Amino acid sequence: MTAWSNWSGSVKAGPAELARPRDEASLQDLVRRAAKVRVVGAGHSFMPLCATEGLLLSLEDLQGGLEVAADRKTVTAPAGWSLKRLTEALWREGLSLPNQGDVNPQALAGALATGTHGTGRDLGSLSTFAHAFRLVMADGSVVTCSRSERPELFEAQRLSLGLFGVATRIVIDVLPAYRLEERIERRSLAWVLENFADVAGRCRHAEFFVFPYSDDVILKTLDPTDEPDTTERSGGSGDAVFRFCCELGRAAPPLIGPLHRLIMRGSGATRRIGPAYEIFPSERTVRFEEMEYELPRAAGLPALQEAIAWIRKARLPVTFPFEFRWAAGDDIWISPFNKGPGASISMHQYAPMAWRELFAKGERIFRAAGGRPHWAKRHTLRPDDVDALYPMAERFRAVRREADPAGKFLNPHLAELFS
After folding, report:
1. What is the CA radius of gyration of the chain?
2. Which end of the chain, N or C, is more open, meaning fewer C-beta atoms within 10 Å of its C-beta?
3. H helices within 226-353, ranges in order?
4. Cα four-point dihedral sign 43, 38, 376, 185
């Protein structure tokens, strides 16, 4: 048995075996003989999606490279590559992903399997990029699924939570390589509440961060540009200062409000330009726990205001800011965006501080506003909640039972929701 934990340290497991196969035949053999299997990338899931007492697989070393389609609109990519590795390789081919989130260590397969998303009024989650999957099934066989080949399996696999097989290669959308201009500025919360729809409508990407005890926000926009690159890049000094503030707030919670206002007074406007794959991600070295809910777009800002008012009234020790984004709707069976265009609210807490009760109470606000959680972020859904929120849930389960009748890819958390 080997000790394993996720990025934040809150999910721990003791897999009987950790394996990093280098070729598909070895992977097939490992899956065929294992009783239980889960796959891990960077461990950025805050829910116990990767936890197992059986075989824990990493596909980072699996042989294979990019295959660019003749029309250069799609590529076939190794599922175990990190988004960082993938986007660097795409750039060398003169290509970019249509969108990214704000960190890039996650494996491509894991990002798609959990509905990871970025920002953009008309841009869907990374799961919407997929056109086909190559999978090692529970019995060790290899299949391909797409809209025309095994379409039911494909529809379930688009956001799969790793329940149908081990993805080894994925056909995804790409765009000609593009560069982005990032602008970060301080604005009043009142101004952003009134003008966010306009900002999100005219910028390709728009989001903001708001500390619960500040009346100002950090507004971030990204837009394609042909202007030359700037030399400014994200560094770790800001994270060091923020870590110090988190530790100070942890030791003396009454200081959190003044610290939030001090941080915002010290934040100024910045601008940088570079390749999209370098501009999208930000450095995240201060460990945190996260809950994220995707709400109907019209309900997003009112729910955020309610959550801020609740924290202030109860004087709760919340050191991290909320993150607010928009994303497009989709048609994926268990995607939290399949009701239509969404507003995303991420609630964070410094990892060494108490978060369970805090998130449970915040979750009530977001659920009451029609929200559905990001599958990889903290939530307390039960099976009846899944059925109520997702009309296609039982069809998803039926495909899972057919693909994996013995439940090889289930763990206790997923078995509770989808067995």
Report:
1. 21
2. N
3. 237-251, 256-265, 276-279, 297-314
4. positive
Identify any residues that bridge with 38 across adjacent strands, giving them in sequence order: 56
Q: CB atoms < 10 A from the CB of 301, how many?
A: 18
Write out the H or E segment, with its range, that includes residue 190. helix 189-202
The SS3 assignment for 178 reads coil
- Report which of 81, 162, 201, 146 is spatially closest to residue 334, judged by C-alpha positions: 162
Distance between CA atoms of 395 and 107, rounded to whole angstroms?
A: 27
User: Two tokens at 76?
Assistant: 């076939």
Contacts of 25 (CB under 8 A, 6+ apart): none
Record the tokens describing residue 296, joined without a space: 């109907």
DSSP category for residue 340: S
Which distant-in-sequence residues (6+ apart) come within 8 Å of 198 by Cβ?
Answer: none
Q: In residues, how long is the chain?
A: 419
Q: Shortest CA distance to 247 belongs to which of 259, 265, 230?
A: 259
In this predicted structure, what is the pLDDT of residue 231?
Answer: 74
Question: Which residues in the chain come in under a pLDDT of 70?
Answer: 232-237
15 alpha-carbon distance from chain centroid: 24
Residue 239's pLDDT is 87
